[in-house]
Amino acid sequence: MVTKDQRRRQLARDKFERQHERRVQAQRKTVRRNAVVAAVLAVVLAAGATAWAAGAFSPDAKKDDAASADASPTPAEPSKAPDPCTKPAEGSPGTEQWKKEPAVTVDTAAKYTLALQTTCGDIALDLDAKNAPHTVNSFAFLAGKGYFDHTKCHRLTTSGIYVLQCGDPTGQGTGGPGYTIPDENLKAKEIAGGTYPAGTVAMANTGQAHTGGSQFFLVYKDSPLPPNYTPFGTISAAGMKVLDKISAAGESTGAGDGAPNATVVINKATVGKS
Q1: 3-state DSSP assignment of residue 132
Q2: Percentage of the chain surpassing pLDDT 90?
Q3: Which helix (H) or strand (E) holds 174?
Q4: CA 39, CA 33: separation in Å to the nearest integer?
Q5: What is the pTM of this model?
Q6: Cα gap 172→161, rounded to integer Å
Q7: Closest Cα partner for 142 from 183, 206, 93, 109?
Q8: What pLDDT does 18 receive?
Q9: Which top-level group of life is the source organism from (predicted)?
C-alpha cells in the first residue's frame, strides 16, 4: 500500500521531471534564437569587425521544483515576512563568458573551502575535490574571476524540496559561464536513497547529463531528489543558520517556489585551500 508520504514524494518527482522538460525545450528555443542573432551580427559586422554572440545559456537551474501532495494545489498567500538581510555591497554582476571549461588544476588530496559572504550572513562550505574535481576546479576558477560577486540567489523552494539556488549573474535562472562541466559523485552514498540531506551543496542542471555550469543549490532541509545533481560539498553549521533565516522569510509567490523574500546577494565568493 502506498503511504501518503510516498505519494507526496512521487508527485514531487513527477512535477520535477515535467517542469525540467519544459525548461529544456525553452532553452533549445533560446539556442536557436541566439544562433539567428549571431548570424545577423556576423553580416552587419562583416567589414572586418569581430562579431560576438553569447551562445546558449548554461543550465536553467530551476531544477528542484517543489510539489505538494495535491497535484493541483491552491496557492497560498505570499509570505509577508520582513527582509532579514542587509543592503548589498556596491557593484554589479560580471558578464564575462568562457568558451570551454578551465583545465583541472585542483589538488584532489587537498581540502578546499568556499566562503560566501552574503547580505544575510556568511555561508562557509567544505568542498569535495577528491570526488568532484571538475566542479571544485570550476568554482575556484570562477570565484577567482569574481564571477559570483554581487550575484543574487534567485530561487527558494519551501515545499516538497527545500533549497536555495544561487550562481546565476542574470538573477533569472538562465545564466551561466559559457561552458558546462561533467556530472560527478552521483553514486555518493549520501544521496543514493533519493534524498539530498540538509547541509548538502550540489550543482543545478537542465535535467540532462553533464549540463552543470555555475548555478548551485544549498539544501537547508532533507529533500527528495533523484541522484542526478553533483554533490560537491557540505555547509557549515553557521551557514545552516543563515539558510534557516532566509527560508523563514519565505518566497515571493506563496506557492512554495519563487524568489526569496530575503534579499540574498553574494557580495563576495572566495575559494581557499588548506
Answers
A1: coil
A2: 70
A3: none
A4: 10
A5: 0.73
A6: 20
A7: 93
A8: 66
A9: Bacteria
pLDDT band at 174 (very low <50, low <70, confident <90, very high): very high
Q: In the structure grid, which three cell numbers stand for residue 27, read together? A: 532553452
Reference 97, options 169, 34, 30, 154; nearest CA is 169
Distance CA 246, CA 244 (A): 5
Q: Residue 48 region, left (φ>0) first, then alpha (ψ -120 to 50), else beta?
A: left
Three state DSSP letters for 214-240: CCEEEECCCEECCCCCCEEEEECHHHH
Q: Average pLDDT of 190-210? A: 97
Query: Is the pLDDT confidence value at 1 over 80?
Result: no
Report yes or no: 247 and 156 within 8 Å, Cβ to Cβ.
Answer: yes
Closest CA to 269 of 212, 216, 221: 216
Element (H, E) at 150: none
Domain residue ranges in the chain: 4-68+85-273
- pLDDT tens digits along 60-106: 434 334 322 233 344 445 545 789 999 999 999 999 999 999 999 99
Phi/psi for 71 (5° steps) reads -65, -25
User: Which pLDDT score is estimated for 9?
Assistant: 65
Q: How does DSSP classify residue 212? A: B
Q: Once rounded to an integer, what is the mean pLDDT over residues 224-253? A: 98
- Helix (H), strand (E) counts: the chain: 3, 12
